[in-house]
Design goal:
With 312 residues, the protein is of the alpha/beta class. It has one domain: Rossmann fold. The strands form two sheets. It has a seven-stranded mixed beta sheet, with helices on both faces. Strand 10 and strand 11 form a beta hairpin.
């Protein structure tokens, strides 16, 4: 359904006489099939959210392109982009800041119905009620304001708002990171059910590996703007090949301590995206780095399970 080809995004930073670029995303090529969920994981600042916004056309790409059903988003005319906006939607990370406190939730959910002229004014209340019911809320909640709901309920409202336009592709940007664990499970179950019911394709962004393992079909691991490893969830979690993926999985909590991998500790802090290392961006923290890693940018190689490392 949606493909990125050598996608890159840089942001200018610095003052008038010291202006340079921060490379948030570099050479990212991923695909999400119809009805599929791709989990995108990595440390904070790795570029995950930027990739999500690039795939929705909310940010212009510096290099590469995004294709939605073969159509280049950057080449779409305003009228075409308006149609595409209806089919590409976002669930925000923060359920508190993403809703307008001065408007009822019914009015906010109905925005997409008004903007895209999907139903007549007389049928909007019924459609809003149906969307609230779909995410597990009562139809009469439409008249309430955001402050009258819990965090989990607000995230359900955000999901209902994203579904109002009838999207085909959904970017869920860490949608459960601000919620309690028990509430996280409810929202994840809701997303899984909606995906199955509606046939949604989804990019699920998270730093929580157990959550991704539960929800995603495939997973891509990002570090400093690049994809380090990508493949089916079962393959990547069972036999991680990149040292960075191995370190992430060794640090993830487990309900079965006897099955946990030996802890792999990474040395130092991630480098700045404004001044990344030469060659492999992970080499300064990699336990198996070789001299050649300083001069070679590893390609993401493989068929269904791809890894960017010259040592594996």
């Amino acid at each position: 359904m949606i493909t990125t080809e050598h996608l890159g995004k840089s942001f200018p930073i610095g003052g008038l006489f010291n202006r340079h670029a921060l490379h948030a995303v570099r050479d990212v090529s991923i695909t999400v099939g119809r009805g599929e969920t791709l989990g995108l994981v990595g440390e904070s600042g790795s570029g995950k959210s930027t990739v999500g916004r690039l795939m929705l056309g909310l940010l212009p790409a510096t290099t590469g392109r995004v294709l939605f059903e073969g159509q280049d988003l950057a080449a779409a005319r305003p009228a075409q982009m308006r149609t595409l906006r209806r089919r590409l939607q976002l669930v925000f990370q923060d359920p508190y800041a993403s809703l307008d406190p001065r408007r009822t939730i019914g009015a906010q959910i109905a925005d997409a119905l008004v903007i895209h002229k999907l139903v007549s004014p007389s049928f909007r209340p019924a459609r809003v009620a149906a969307l609230l019911d779909q995410v597990g809320l009562a139809p009469d909640h439409a008249a309430r304001y955001p402050h009258q709901f819990s965090g989990g309920q607000r995230q359900r409202i955000g999901i209902a708002r994203a579904l109002a336009s009838g999207p085909d592709f959904l970017v869920a940007d860490e949608p459960v990171s601000a919620l309690d664990v028990s509430v996280q499970a409810q929202v994840l179950a809701l997303l899984a059910g909606l995906r199955a019911e509606l046939g949604l394709a989804m990019l699920f962004i998270s730093h929580d590996l157990p959550v991704v393992r539960h929800l995603a079909d495939r997973v891509a691991v990002m570090y400093l703007g690049r994809i380090m490893e990508e493949g089916p969830v079962k393959a990547v979690f069972a036999t991680p090949r990149h040292p960075y993926t191995q370190a992430l999985l060794s640090a993830a909590p487990s309900l079965h301590p006897e099955r946990r991998r030996a802890r792999t500790l990474l040395q130092g802090d991630p480098p700045s995206p404004a001044n990344p290392p030469s060659g492999c961006v992970f080499r300064t923290r990699c336990p198996i780095a070789a001299p050649a890693c300083a001069s070679t940018i590893p390609a993401l190689a493989g068929l269904t399970h791809r890894v960017a490392c010259i040592r594996v």
